[in-house]
Write a structure and sequence with these properties.
Number of domains: 1
Number of strands: 0
Strand content: under 5%
Structural class: mainly alpha
Helix content: over 70%
CATH superfamily: Ferritin, core subunit, four-helix bundle
Distance between the termini: 44 Å
CATH topology: Ferritin
CATH architecture: Up-down Bundle
Length: 262
Amino acid sequence: MERGTRDEAADVHALEPEAFLEEVHSFEFWFQSVQGYLAGLSFGHRPDVHGAPLAPDERERLVTVLCNYCVGETAALEGASGLVAIAPNRLTKVFLATQVADEGRHLEVLLHRLAELGIPAPESEIERRASRSLLHFKRRLRELVESRDWEAAIFAQNVILEAMEFTVFQSHARTADLVTREVLQGIVKDERRHIGFGENELGRRLQASPHIRARIGEVKKELDHWVLESFEETLREIGVPNEERPELGRSYLEVVARLGFA
């Protein structure tokens, strides 16, 4: 039976661990996955979908939020591309190559959405509106990659950053205009795959080498302030009520906690 026509979910999870990684880290698996939810879309949304005009204050908040999403996606794009060079084996290199493609697409569709909202020079607007906390996180991620700190960099990127984006994008999509909603829903599907890779990679390494837990714990402690501050800023901009923010914060922290980091 061909890959594209089989029940992939059932087949994949029945595989032995090595065969499972060979399958889910492949370009073939990536292509079949993204084809299912990107076919027929133009820059992340259906061409015939046009949201209602936004009020000036709504547009202003959305532009600020999208600018910061672009900072996060740029961090992930640069991080994933740098990690390809230091990845410990072929399978992780291939998966990260698919993630580079995902992050490049995310950045492209978000920039296009800014252009649709009437921003003539999105790059300049991003520089002007970027969250200081998120920029600090981006710089630290780059340092971890450049220092070839594999476990710490994967933790920062594929667990912390991806979990934060997954939680925020999923929440934002519930109340966003139709176009932005479709763009975010497509990105969220990619983030699930990226988080799964990070958890699987680190979970196996922590099991084999428990001593690296202390190092990752140090990185988490260092980054917590910047991540949570950026998280709060974004939730405020997208209009999440105060009483709902703690629950979203817990959803983000649960991903980190699955690896044993409170």
